[in-house]
Every structure is written in structure tokens, then in C-alpha cells.
Amino acid sequence: MTDLILHKNKQYIDEDLAYYFSGQRDVNNQIRPQESIYSLSPDSQHFNTDFNDGKVGSLFFPIAAYSIDRIYIGISFPLFANNWGAAFLRYLMTRVKPSGCVILPVYPEMQASEKNYWSRSILENIFLSRSRWKGTSNIWAENDGVMSMRIGRKFPAEMNSTASFFFEESGNSILRRSLQASSHNTSNQQQLFELGQHYWNTANTFSIVERIILDYFGMQQAVTLCDISDSNGLMAIECLFSREINVTQAVSFMTDKTHINDTSLLSKRYHSIIKNRFKSIDTSITDTLNDLANYKVICLINTTTNGATSDKTNEVIANALDKLMPGGILIVHESQGLSDDVLQLLDNYPMTSYYSSIVASKLQNGDAISHYSSIIETELVSENNNRKYAYIVIQKHH
To answer: Which residue spans of the chain are classified as CATH 3.40.50.150?
Structure first.
């Protein structure tokens, strides 16, 4: 029997395993993993694995279809309850045997909503496969805080998401680059790792941005989006796919020209859905901001330079705010952390709020955010106290 478990990274392995080996979670020994369970994480570059080498393998390793008995999602693994997360779960279901299952933590309804994590009702709304109580459901309740996904009455339909595109096309992309080896000096493993990281980091960024847009504009209000980030259009396209927000037009600044072709293929793959709602610009931030008369949402994510003077940073932010509609929002984030000068600069703007970069939750002074992982709970407290790693949202006056 082959069991796999997914972690945020290596530091969470012991806690993730303890959750599923706990008698509280497995009262009747229904879902207890094998002692030989093998770990995968998105930051691992170990691809040469047969799931028996005692190392931590890469999440982006091309697992053979219908070859794994059970795949567990660790409590540290940041899988949000949105289109990307649903597409990822569907992909995992294609990796387990017909008699196998995907096992994941679920939260009570209010806690799930707070973090945009999975709850029983959200899983059933998306993946329920029986009708009028006939047939086998895809979703099984196991024990407290645990559910499993199995092949039910019918297999879940493919979902429109950059996750689906990555797992469908990443192999072809690497093969193309390999066959053009004269122009590439990196190994196939390194290329797959870098491509996987690109999609994975975008998934997390999108999940926070989606929550922010939902909180400010709801599900129905039309939103025009200016995406100035290092996602090279992936985040903007994922926003167009979202069922939780209504992005009607997205303009994206392409910061890394090596990914432009992949983004072009992605937009063509889903042309019937995206239509003419997405535009990429590779010249400058100014040209991107000026493409539309104004925007409801502008993102400056991993593009502001901490080494720049406060005056220069203030100019970029002021230009972005100037392009917002009244009531629009500017979202600023740096995964490496904003400098103290920039953080103070942003904090001086009126109508400023903060969102966690760990879970899709608004940060409130003195309010703790619960999490099944005690390590992540500690990280959330630290993030709330020192918000240089948080997402900062500035709303323009109406």
C-alpha cells in the first residue's frame, strides 16, 4: 500500500502526521496512515523518488494516474476552498486507485468561512455525485475534523483553473523545453520545480486577493482588475475563473518574459471562458495602469522595490491610487516583507486594512485566528503583531 501526505514544508511534518495518527481523529482505525507514509512538499526539489527513499519528495513530481492508495492533506498544507483548491483536489482524485481516497482536514462552518478553508458543506456543494440519495457520494465523513473523497456515482467534472492547466500541460511544457535544449541550460527537474513554484505561489496569492475582493465588493459587483505582480497573468486569469467574485476585465503586467508563452497558451486554452476579458502588457507598470481609464482593484504584489526611496515608492502608490475608481482598493504585498519605511508610509493612508498572508482572513488587533496547526497559530499571532508580511489594502474615498 502506498500512502502520501502533503505538507506546507518540512518543518510541519511531525505535526501533520500526528493529526492523522491521533486516536481522536481515527477512533475506529478507518483512516490511520501506514507507518511508511511518504511526504511531499511544494518547496522540495527531490524528484528522483519511488516513495520509499525516506526523503521529502516534490509536490510537482508527476505521479502516475490511479497509482496511489491514499493521499492525505496535512493540516499545514494551505489548500483554500476556491476554484484552484477544487481543481487541485480533483487532480489528486485522478492519482488514487479506484478504491483509494483523498483524505483532508475540514473545519466547522464558521472557522472555515473565516479562513476560506474547506468545510463539509463546501465539499458537498462542489463534489457531491449522487442524486436524491441514490448512488455513492464522493464525500465521506470520517471522524472529527476529517473527511475523505472517493470515486462516487460519477467523477467530478473538470474545473476551469490554472491548477488544471498546470497538471495537464506542465509535462508538455518541460518536454518542449527539453527538446529545445540548445537554448536552455537548466535540467528538466529544475524547470519543473520553477514552473511548479510559479503556479503554486500564484495560487496562494490569488486566494488572499479573492477574499479581499469578496469582502469589499461581494459576489455580484462588477470588478475591473489591474494585476501588477510576479504572477505573469496567472492571478488575473484565476480571478476571471472565480465563482466567488465578478471580475469583468483584467489587465496584467508581465514581469518575467520567460513565462509569457505559457500564459498565452493558458488564455488560448480557456478562450471560450476568458474571451476578450484579459489583456497582458509587457512594457511598463505605467502602461499597465493606463490601459483602462480606471480600475476597481489594483494589485502591487512582489513588484515594489524595498530598496527604493520612500519618495519613489510613494510615487508608485500615488499613481496607482489615482487610477482607482472612487471606492476602489489598492492591494500591496511583498512576500519578503515590506521595509519599515514603506510599511509606515502605507499605514499613514486613511481607510487602510490588513489581511493575513497565511490564511484568507482580515487581521484585527488583539483577535486570534484559530488553526488546527499550533505552529501556524503561532505564526498568525506574529504576523498580526508585525504586519510587514501582511497584505495591505487601501481604499480610495467614495
So the answer is: 208-395
End-to-end CA distance of the chain, in Å? 60
pLDDT tens track for 24-39 = 666 566 788 999 999 9
CATH number listed for the domain at residues 3-149: 3.40.50
What angle in degrees, to the nearest 10, is found between the helix axes of 260-269 and 234-241?
Answer: 20
Question: Collapsing DSSP states into helix, strand and coil, what is residue 373?
Answer: coil
Radius of gyration of the chain (CA): 21
pLDDT digit string (tens) for 312-361?
777 888 999 999 999 999 999 999 998 888 888 888 888 999 999 999 99
Residue 160 burial (10 A CB sphere; 0-12, 13-18, 19+):
buried
Q: For 314, which DSSP code? A: H
**What is the CATH T-level fold of the domain 208-395, as seen in this structure?**
Rossmann fold (3.40.50)
pTM more than 0.70: yes
Give the per-residue pLDDT at 240: 98
Confidence at residue 358, expressed as pLDDT on a 0 to 100 scale: 98
Buried b (16+ CB within 10 A) or exposed e, 46-59: ebebebeeeebbbb
Report d(CA 24, CA 12) in Å as an integer.
Answer: 19
Handedness of CA 26, 29, 31, 35 (dihedral sign): positive
